[in-house]
Amino acid sequence: MYLNQFPVIDLPATGANIRRLRQTKGLSVRDLQQFFGFEEPQAIYKWQRGQSLPTVDNLYALSTLLDVPMNDILVAADFSDICTMSGGPEPAAHLFYPRAQGAWRNFKAA
């Protein structure tokens, strides 16, 4: 029996959250591009589409810019949805974090 479920980030929901928070602050994608010093805005568009996540340092900077804690940017995936998608709880972690699959199987309640 597993005591805790492996936490997984919902990439599309996190991307939508980044877009919403950016718009609430009245910032454009170009504003974020300039803030981060990116030559092109593609990374920000990928974040907003849920195709990738900001690096930890960029997530921290984004949270400062948006004036919210990092945890308010990230959206946790609903575990029941992941189980439905993957066919059960054990293989769920590999959907988002392939290297975590082994850790997931080895996790046991103390």
How would you characterize the overall build of this protein?
It is a single chain. The chain has 6 helices and no strands. The chain has helices spanning 11-24, 29-36, 42-49, 56-66, 79-86, 100-106. Mean pLDDT is 81; it is low at 90-94 and 97-110.
Which structural class is indicated by helix and strand composition? mainly alpha
Number of strands: 0
Multimeric state of these chains? single chain
- Poorly predicted runs: 90-94, 97-110
Helix content: 40-55%
Q: Globular, elongated, flat, extended or rod-shaped: what is the shape?
A: elongated
Integer average pLDDT: 81
Distance between the termini: 10 Å
Q: Please tally the helical runs, counting DSSP H or I stretches of 4 or more residues.
A: 6
Q: What fraction of residues sit in β-strands?
A: under 5%
Rg, nearest Å: 16 Å
Largest sheet: none
The SSE order reads HHHHHH
Protein traits:
110 residues; mainly alpha; 51% helix
Quick recap:
The protein has 6 helices and no strands.
Topology, pairings included?
Elements: H1 11-24, H2 29-36, H3 42-49, H4 56-66, H5 79-86, H6 100-106
